[in-house]
Specification:
single chain; 278 residues; alpha+beta; 3 domains; four-stranded antiparallel beta sheet; 10 strands; Kinase-like domain-containing protein; transferase; kinase activity
Length: 278
């Protein structure tokens, strides 16, 4: 005979208690329900919950393991690192510092999975005319877009010098888009209005192997995306998928915030492969 405190006895007791609770629930509320409380979740709770717990342990969404882990890393560990004075402030600062500081990560190059809204197709010779037209428009695009267009030719000159030799007979054009989807599920946006607010993505860029000494921190560069476009040239079968970005740099005069350097805009721009963004 099994002990009344054995796991099997406890499971049976819980099963009986759940069945009784469900019966009382239906008795009280069935008159208020069109289906007389014939709910799939109620059925699952009444007839399958105990069996699932016995077989798989904690039910989905009812396990405390996730929150126990979060409590350990975001409360217990910061508390132990504090000096026990103004503990809450120290814990908050420690958590913020951890979130703001990039962690070591392997350099990953992401592929694009699709582009968003198509804006314009322009030959390089037509860009200046397009900028003038946009500035006079009754509904001009965001100033970041115009700023990006004004930097396209200069940044492409640099990009072509570092990527490959161009042919004198090449013809060039660009197709500008509002957003692009990456295979890591991120979406880069250059939107004047997205859900009521402007959205120009801030990104982290992986440097080339011979340029890591120039990175700001942990092998990363930080930039603001101004323009997303495909660059077409006759001598290349596939277009270059590029983002025109503006650099951030460290603000040496400003004190650190949560032990992290503050950044500011520079006047440096680059056209970079979208795949180098993560």
């Amino acid at each position: 005979m099994r002990s009344p405190n054995s796991p099997f006895a406890i499971f049976n007791y819980c099963k009986d208690a759940i069945i009784d609770w469900c019966a009382d629930f239906k008795k009280i509320f069935s008159t208020l329900s069109v289906t007389e409380c014939s709910f799939p979740k109620l059925h699952s709770w009444q007839y399958h919950a105990v069996t699932a717990i016995r077989k798989y342990e904690a039910l989905n969404s009812l396990s405390t393991e996730t929150y126990e882990t979060l409590h350990k890393y975001h409360v217990k560990n910061p508390y132990r690192s504090s000096n026990r004075k103004e503990v809450m402030k120290q814990i908050v600062n420690a958590v913020k510092r951890k979130e703001l500081t990039p962690s070591d990560r392997k350099l990953v190059y992401c592929k694009t999975t699709g582009f968003g809204k198509f804006l314009w197709e322009l030959s390089l010779n037509a860009i200046d005319t397009k900028i003038k037209s946009l500035k006079k428009s009754n509904n001009p695009p965001h100033e970041n877009i115009i700023e990006g267009l004004s930097q396209v030719i200069l940044t492409l000159d640099t990009f072509l010098d570092t990527s490959s030799q161009e042919s004198e007979n090449d013809k060039f054009c660009i197709k500008v888009y509002e957003s692009v989807h990456l295979e890591n599920s991120q979406i880069l946006r250059t939107s004047k209005e997205f859900q009521g607010k402007e959205w120009f993505s801030d990104v982290v860029v992986t440097p080339a192997e011979d340029q890591e000494q120039y990175s700001l921190a942990e092998g990363s560069w930080y930039r603001k995306v101004l323009l997303i476009f495909k660059f077409f040239r006759d001598s290349s079968k596939e277009p270059y998928e590029l983002a025109l970005v503006r650099w951030y740099d460290i603000f040496p005069e400003q004190p650190e915030l949560y032990e992290c350097s503050q950044l500011h805009y520079t006047k440096e721009y680059n056209a970079i492969p979208i795949g180098s963004i993560y």
